[in-house]
Amino acid sequence: MGGCFSKPKPVELKIEVVLPEKERGKEELSASGKGSPRAYQGNGTARHFHTEERLSTPHPYPSPQDCVEAAVCHVKDLENGQMREVELGWGKVLLVKDNGEFHALGHKCPHYGAPLVKGVLSRGRVRCPWHGACFNISTGDLEDFPGLDSLHKFQVKIEKEKVYVRASKQALQLQRRTKVMAKCISPSAGYSSSTNVLIVGAETLRQEGFSDRIVLCTLDRHLPYDRPKLSKSLDTQPEQLALRPKEFFRAYGIEVLTEAQVVTVDVRTKKVVFKDGFKLEYSKLLLAPGSSPKTLSCKGKEVENVFTIRTPEDANRVVRLARGRNVVVVGAGFLGMEVAAYLTEKAHSVSVVELEETPFRRFLGERVGRALMKMFENNRVKFYMQTEVSELRGQEGKLKEVVLKSSKVVRADVCVVGIGAVPATGFLRQSGIGLDSRGFIPVNKMMQTNVPGVFAAGDAVTFPLAWRNNRKVNIPHWQMAHAQGRVAAQNMLAQEAEMSTVPYLWTAMFGKSLRYAGYGEGFDDVIIQGDLEELKFVAFYTKGDEVIAVASMNYDPIVSKVAEVLASGRAIRKREVETGDMSWLTGKGS
Description:
alpha/beta, 18% helix
């Protein structure tokens, strides 16, 4: 999309969809045919949507007056493996030189707008410096998550040693491209996903040409939204968080059932049963139930104004009640610390209660945890460490004090609990779909459960982590859920895809971002380069002789660089990061 050297073609765009031969027979099972009143559907029925109803994306063949063309540099201005932002008048373009060839792409990551020129170029793709999304430099396609959209790819030509880029003005201004997707042609075969669903799975099915019925079911009142933002920005409204507008689901024939609670799955008859008795037949099923936050079990747990943060409503209520009041956060993990950081400017006081001796200790280690704790203390956050809550005391039913096991009494009008979560898989207990002793759904590399045709993804699964010797792990990160949803959808269409993503996560507190890649469980040493006091550092987590994870602040794009090295299959040895000489890592290109 966005290239426009060829002459304008007629406007009609037909998408014909053909399922792989071996899958076609299996996909022709019929659904229960019952429409649900809660589904977002065009005119109440699933139907084929025509191209004129597509959401506005730049037309693949824009007319010449919609195009802009300019010489952007001399062929010798860029070395192999170099990237540069160039200006085309209507917007910037990322120019990449790789293996002697020039490529021109959108310059901002469609996820949160990071400048890709500061990212990492390796193996024919550019990785975002902020959150690790990867884009193919030949097509602009999103190849690894987070985010949903791809980059525009612009046309490049070389004339008289000069590099020219030609692009549509609309594409330059949009800076994102939604992949071409099929429409729902037949409302027959019922694809269903249950509970809190992964939108990526549904989008992948449509991108790969699947044209039968897709139903997304969610316990939430809202269409799929950007949940990691909840704890980082508590007063964001649901509509600002939506990943896709309502029209998008309608245009591509993806039905969404909101506030739909699945009570059981009958794998024998291939039916999903809802709380209200409504049944939906499926031919393939993707389970992404997520997790339920753990709650306090102490005395007084029923008093008002004690919250876990699960929905936009929870987050919004906490902010409203916290203004000018005393807040206690229980748990110094990612959720608790993000909430504490966000509320410091709004609340009268913020206190954090934690069992460990430093925040993030299990995840980031003692030294990094202590440096972050200091940043919080400098922002007036008080810590009560190595203790837990023994009682919540109320006045007229509303929280007034939090009593700690150390017998300290802390004033509190609002309490936010972030002490972890458990997989929300109780509804699967009698289903025959396998669960482990902790309630997680074990899946294979293709995200399939023990039941053929039933896949699972997200926070509630354990899966084999390819670059840690296929160790079965649970990684409750946003980016992993995206990647797993995509792999599951590809395997629903018999494409034999496997999970190979390197885990990547981030957190933001007091305007500072911490990035993390890898899987550090069981690290036995932490090697720190840079300055912890100044919060400009990189920490390498090692186990034995091998680097298994990395975290950094103000050190971009090192985490993306390490993620690329790990993704390429190369092991990083402890001695390579001990010397402080990181030329092997920060060198240009691969």
